Amino acid sequence: MLIAIGHCVRITFSQTNATKKIEGVSVAEKNELLFSYNINFNDLPLWQKRGIGFYWEELDKEGFNPKTNEQVISKKKTVKGGYGTSDER
Questions:
Q1: In terms of Cα–Cα distance, which of 79, 76, 27 is closest to 52?
Q2: Which of 13, 54, 57, 81 sits at 20 to 30 Å (Cα–Cα) from 68?
């Protein structure tokens, strides 16, 4: 598993090792871990601090059915995304 932290530092751990490294660790200890790789958590952009979320949004799409020769409305799913907190969707 590739863990990308910051803009220019990439550290590779297996998924198991990465999980073990931060599981049950306090926020202060996680900040110290980042700092050991010369990364200051406070200097990271918001999307790197909180992550990015994606969700499906269903839209009505107007179309034409050539078999029945009529206009139809169909459902279309589209991916939406955002970063920060969930209330920013």
A1: 79
A2: 57
